[in-house]
Amino acid sequence: MSSDGRAQAPDLDDRVVRTALTSLPFASVLLVDGDLRYRAAVGAAITVYGYRAQDLIGRKLSEVLTAETLAYVEPAMHRALAGESFTEVRENPKLGASFELTYGPAIEGGAVVGALVVVRDVTAEHRALAELAANERLHHMLLSQTSDVIVLTTVEDGRYTWVSPSAFRVLGWRHEELLGEAVYDFVHPDDAPLVRAKRSALLDGAEQTSATYRFRRPGGGWTWVEGQVRPVRDAEGAVVALLTTARDVSDRRRLEAELSRARLVFESAFASAPIGMALLSVDGRFIKVNNAVCQLLSRDETSLLGETFQAITHPDDLAASLELLKMMLDGSTSVGRQEKRFLRPDGSTVWCLLALALVRDDDARPRFFISQTQDITERKNAQREMERLATIDALTGLPNRMLLMDRLRHALNQAQRSGLLVGVLFVDLDRFKEVNDTYGHHVGDELLRQVAARLAGSTRIGDTTTRLGGDEFVVLCEQVHTADEVANVAERIRAALAEPFDVLGHEVRISASVGITVGDSDSGEALLQEADRSMYAAKRGGRGRIDVYSEALGTIAADQLAVHAALAEGIARGELRVFYQPIVDLQRGGVMGQEALVRWAHPTRGLLGPGAFLRGADRSPLGVALGEKVLRMACAAAVTWPDGYAVHVNVSARHLAEPGFVAFVKRCLSLSGLAPARLVLEITESLVLAASRSTLASTTALADMGVGLCLDDFGTGYSSVTALHKLPIGGFKIDRSFVAGLPGNKTSASLVDGLISLGAGMGIDVVAEGIETREQALWLAAHGCAHGQGFLFGRPVESPV
């Protein structure tokens, strides 16, 4: 070992040297004497000239080398013979090769005995060097232009051993200024512990680590950098250096700081904003809500989170809300505004102005919605109130002329599409001025309010009752099939207004003149004018009358309405008569009851049957008044008959559904003294189809009283059998159309026989109507029918007993 610790090379003999030189593929050693003759040649490089070693020995350089080569070799040999040692690199263009020539004196015994030349082929090496130089230039360019700084640092003390040229542009330091300096001299003191910890992790075996820290600039400022550090290992795996790639992230840190501040501001504003705010997923689920929106929707945060806006949206507004979200998601609009209603837990609604913005990610994919929700319930209420005031009569609360004309136009358009008609009733109060003059305007105003209530209660569902001003009212009837429907409304109105009013302690009696028109014209004003003219015509004819605009309704309809108007007056004048037709016992013979049939003793047209005046009346208040009159008269008459006789009275569906009908029947029985078992109410099976709770309650109460219930015209409708189960029916009448075919028509016979068996099986009475021949009566009796009725047994008479 040498004094500096290095190993000494062993002495090598000539044989070893010669063997080594001979085996060198790209090197040769030549010995030239003072005459410039070759004395020795060893190695392979000389073969590139086409010579063998033995061909050179003893020959002069001038005999072997070309003139061009001799020109630089010969001077070099003289320099070596003079004792100089040096190296040259020569190119051989012909061979495309490069040679390194090392010259020196050959010394023996202290004297120069020749010149030694070591020839080495360095062609491949030069090419590699050239490529390396080119690569180095490229690397230098890349390293100087890259946005990253690449450095090598020592393991022990973290000093820079190599720094890329980009350090100046990125960090402000020239790379030579950093070489040899310690990393920690440039790291911010607050960040140094982090950097040390990361370096320690690498030395403990981590393959990579990263840290973001502040790096000192030449002027004293700081640059935020993000460093990725990897260990550099030798062949045995030991860490010999640390390779760091660092980039400037100052802008990113500033942006992050700004975003952090903005986030804090947003979070603070979100939480404390007086307006409702929420974040919703793209499918409408609440993912973040503030206190204001919780208060607005009357829900706590827990109940809202995870809930969908669809679940708490008013059903009428849901379709518009979904369409708005769809437009925002497909890019049709970036922001959306909508007035909508939300449902609160107690079932109430709150009107809100909803503003939505869609947040997308860097790839333009929808992430979530930001919503702002403002309570506009008061504004909507105020808006509705303004609209109401613009279209509603302030005194009565009814629609005014403006709303009437709008609905009239709509009704006419609908009528033209459907082929139906529109009815208009113009109502003017009689003697209203006398009320104002007698009791004062405050009583008049209260009377108008009560009139409005009665008018609204007398119309059909869907009709519009309006006040034009003063004591003038208009009723609009939409979707009218026949003139009867309008006539019925007019009758109900007249009857309702004819009842006395209790107005602030005063009993006030008034009547109303009603003008009617029906049509489907294009002009609502024209219809209104027609009804107005008809109303004045009614007034000219006397108080409490109804007049029909005949050109609109046609002669038949106008006559019918006129008949109804006259019938109401006839009832008041006592012109009704009740006739009775016997019902007989087909098995034992004899009369067991009478059916009450109404007639009208018209002052000019004579005695009229029900077909001449009852059309449509049974569906109006007139029908109720008529039914009450007949029932009172029938009970009063029947009490004078023999005890076994019962009276059958037809009852209209409307009359039976009246809330006070049962009480009225009780009064009739009580006042007349007739036993309930002697009264049978006949109802049509069509009533069963429309039977309401009140109807069912009335029939049950009547049956409990002992009043009989009989189903009239049985078998003509599909509800026949249903009626027997639905209502407490005690009997039914076989319709005259079935009896007319007896006994010869087999179909009629089979049907009637089946109905008789049905009644017997259910234990209820069966009455056959329309018996006109003895053969019919005998056939019915033979087949078990209990009772019969028809002209064979007697025509209707006013005094049967």
In short:
Helix content is 41%, strand content 27%.
Task: Please tell me about this protein's structure.
- The model is unreliable at 1-17, 19-24 and 552-557 (pLDDT under 50).
- By secondary structure, the chain is of the alpha+beta class.
- The chain is elongated and about 185 Å long.
- Helix 16 (441-458) runs antiparallel to helix 17, helix 17 (483-498) runs parallel beside helix 20 and helix 21 (621-638) packs parallel to helix 23.
- 41% of the residues lie in helices and 27% in strands.
- A hairpin with a 5-residue loop joins strand 8 and strand 9 (222-233).
- An 8-stranded mixed β-barrel has the order 23-24-26-27-28-29-30-31, surrounded by 6 helices. Strands 2-1-5-4-3 form a 5-stranded antiparallel sheet.
Overall geometry comes to elongated
Residue runs with pLDDT of under 50 for 5 or more positions: 1-17, 19-24, 552-557
Radius of gyration: 60 Å
Q: What portion of residues is helical?
A: 40-55%
Strand content: 25-35%
Summarize the biggest pleated sheet.
8 strands, mixed, barrel
Overall average residue pLDDT? 82
For the biggest β-sheet, the strand order reads 23-24-26-27-28-29-30-31
What's the β-strand tally? 31
Query: Distance between the terminal alpha carbons, to the nearest Å?
Result: 164 Å
The helix tally amounts to 29
Report the structural category: alpha+beta
Characteristic terms for this protein:
alpha+beta; disordered N terminus; 29 helices; five-stranded antiparallel β-sheet; 801 residues
